[in-house]
Amino acid sequence: MRTLLIDSYDSYVYNLAHLIADVSGAEPVVVQLKDLDSPDAIAGFDNVVVSGGSGRSDRSADFAALVRAAGSAVPVLGLGLREIPGSRGRHSRFEGSVSGHGRLSRVSHYGAEMFSGVPDEFTAVCGPSFQLPDPLPEELRVAARDGDGGVVAVVHRDLPQWWAQLHPESILTEHGARLIENFNALTRRVAGGVRSVPAPRAPLTAPIGSAQEAPGRLVHQCHVRIVDRRVDRAAVFEELFADAGHRCWLDFDNSGAGEPRFSVLAGGGPLSELISGRPGEPPVVAFADGRADERVEGSVFDHIGRELSRRAVLAPELPFEFAGGYLGWHAADTGETDWLFADRMVVVDHLSSTTYVMCLSADSPVEPEAARQWCDAAVAAIRRLPGEPVDGRSGSHLANLRLDGAEIACSALERVVRVDADGWVEARTAVAPADGEGLLTVDLLRNELGRVCSVGTVSVPDLMDADDRAEVVPTVRGRLRAGAGAIDAVRAVLSTAGDQRGFVGWFSSTGAAHLKSADLVVERSGHDGTTVLDTAAK
Q1: Which residues, other chains included, contact 242 with Cβ-Cβ below 8 Å and sequence gap of 6+?
Q2: Is the pTM of this model over 0.90?
Q3: pLDDT tens, residue by residue, 266-276
Q4: Closest CA to 314 of 324, 305, 300, 304
Q5: How far apart are CA 221 and CA 198, in angstroms?
Q6: CA distance 296 to 286
Q7: Closest to 197 measured CA to CA, from 487, 1, 375, 445
Q8: Which CA distances in Å does 232 have to 17, 237, 407?
């Protein structure tokens, strides 16, 4: 079945696209409203689904596509619309004073085909109820009302058109898949059992902000030494990286809860580079090997994405996923950002009291030996240092970075997004799912992961999952679709966090990524005082 899904700039259109694909077995064609400027745009589709928004009749430019869909012979399912196009210009509007998402209601229906197989009463996430003209246009019939008596669904008496102010794609809507199944049954009945075969096509959407793979494949070898002892992170950080022009300390874990299991202590060696972005200026890459600084196209994250796509690291099996890559910080409210490609690092595994000394080398006759020598010297230095005190860990996730003349310090880090080397993404956010704001956030996260993840993989394993402070922190999970990478996942997740203005983290050349929100305190050399980026840990 070939479905056209009109994206009316709705925040949940990819949740809807995944639901349609799950039910129908074929991905819908997602087209933005602005691109439906041709009368023939709907031709060749078996049915049309219109996402929320879709303009008003007094704004003909953004309402025209909806009017064309309503005037076509194909079945139409309109969800969360501002108006229902009617005959002779009699359009049905809804009340705009009610919240457009997150209103959990008990819905009662009257046996229309739209709700075939659905209990007479069910729970659904609803938008504003329709404010229908009086008298009701003769071609429309009320199909369902919410608990307050408001109309949330109508059907056309003569045409295969259903209009609803509920969100079948929401995580808390019951029987949402059944509504899509019923719409597909309507489509087959109207077509007399004949349906088109979807042609091979691109995925739902291209990875957001992705760039093509950069030319010039780079293969690095990761040399590893293992020290079986507890070490003092601060002492190791100062001993090995005090003189480094750029250095990073970042705690992380694989579970997202509790004390940090791992600490990455890293600095720049001969293969390192620093990519920096400042407001109103193109990103600049500074190389450690003496090459002149280079301005790059696109954003800092475009550059990191290109580099990760062309870099490969050959490393032994490790209990963590960072084996060289980019560590850094980003202030979303100002656009300031710095990321170091680190080729020398120490990773401390606090659970097993094991320390991993690692150094990258390029594919050349000289560099492997130099990397091995650095590892051996680092191991010798670590053995001379005292071990970490038993009470030396605070339990808080810490970060300290010195990049491009800025010293960044933060604590109480909380994971925002994690991407493993197999392409599985986990995004977490503290919410209260029972209220509208919490529900909106969870559905937004699902939608944004749906932009870059394969159909059928996006899920919320435990909506009421709580952290060690009893805050509700649901995890949204999905697997990256072909062609998408860690940069795409991070961009998608961070686009939902409007008040999250600071984060630190890493992107590994293994394809993994790990980012956390944080309070960022930035002190710049040559400047008086301290600049505090106004952000709170989330």
Answers
A1: none
A2: no
A3: 999 999 999 99
A4: 324
A5: 45
A6: 11
A7: 1
A8: 50, 9, 21
Nearest to 301 by CA among 265, 267, 272, 328: 328
User: Nearest CA to 225 among 106, 345, 99?
Assistant: 345
Q: What is the mean pLDDT of residues 510-522?
A: 77
Instruction: Give me the count of residues in the chain.
Output: 538
Inform me whether the pLDDT recorded for 47 exceeds 80. yes
HSE-CB at 244 with a 13 A cutoff on CA atoms is 30
Nearest to 64 by CA among 91, 94, 102: 91
Structure tokens at 489: 């996942």
DSSP 8-class letter at 537: -
For 404, counting Cβ atoms within 10 Å of its Cβ (0-12 exposed, 13-18 middle, 19+ buried), the class is buried
Q: E strand or H helix at 86, and its extent? A: none
Contact 129, 151 (CB under 8 A): yes
Q: At a CB cut-off of 8 Å and minimum separation 6, what does 215 contact?
A: 310
The answer to whether the bond into 135 is cis (omega within 30° of 0) is: yes
Question: For position 347, what pLDDT does the model report?
Answer: 95
Between 295 and 427, the more confident residue is 295
Q: Cβ(313)–Cβ(360) under 8 Å?
A: yes
Cβ-based neighbour number of residue 263 at 10 Å: 24
Cα angle 92, 97, 103 (rounded to 5 degrees) comes to: 95
